[in-house]
Amino acid sequence: MNTTLPNKLYAAITAIGGYIPQNKRTNSDLEKVCDTNDEWIIKRTGIKERRILEDDLATSDMAVRAIEDLAKQYNKNLHEVDAILVATSTPDMPMPATANIIAEKLGLNNVWAFDINAACSGFLYALDMGASLVETGRYKSVLIVGADNISTYVDIHDRSTNILFGDGAGVVLLEPSVEGGIMDAYMRSNGDGRAFLNIEAGGTQFPIKLSDTDTQKRYLRQDGKTVFKQAVQSMSDACTQVMKRNNLTVADINWVVPHQANQRIIDAVGRSLNIPEGRTLSNIEYLGNTIAATIPLCIWENVKLMKTGDIVMLTAFGAGFSWGASLFRWMI
What is the rounded CA–CA span in Å between residue 90 and residue 61? Predict the structure, then answer.
């Protein structure tokens, strides 16, 4: 009788891609439409510009280009993909899922494709779910997409939101590995934050009607002070929980990639965790907050810094509230 236990199967990130629109919205542009200035924006957010998707394109178009970038850079055959999980708060339409539209645009007609909406935490939620699919052995090639065309929902005259948000898409490919990959994930959510960060209109509670005169419910709104406090506390706690569960300390973590919400939040989380300077990655300065796309885009832009075997911590916080942290070994 063979009593040898099978090797643990990990879901490893084996490729990464990204796409950012060409159009830029600079701080100078915002100075022309509301009471703000470049110095104030940089001091409060660390952001100098953000990318804005062209009017005739949608979230799926960015996702497709990110996936095509992944396939080209890592020589991956997209027709071998089993599933596409898309984290987005800005779907092309209420139905079908944007993942379905992406599959059609890529010519993939036999994949399991669906959306996940957890706002800025969406990519981490999708990554954990995708990892579970691979770890079962039932799926061998899973695309995890984070994509948002959030500028569509930003009131250009509202300086509490127009200074923060931009558009973009990032994607990773998960494949099975016995050597390493996703190590752990800690995900949480509650309904306590619904009033502090939301887009009210467009659902069944506040359907959009062509005759609506009150258009404000169509726009993203947030209570910045409340969100800031909760984000720092929740992201720091999630990272601490993951390290504790895996018997790790900050010294064991090579890179921390936080959700790119605001440079002050990123810095505050780093201080809370005592992360050494230079090990927290950020690209918010020129992209802003791209919602579910921030983490994969930040990895994509800093991929040359990572070495095979590095331990990477991801953490995010978003509307809901929703939050979490993921831990993985970099296998590329």
Answer: 12
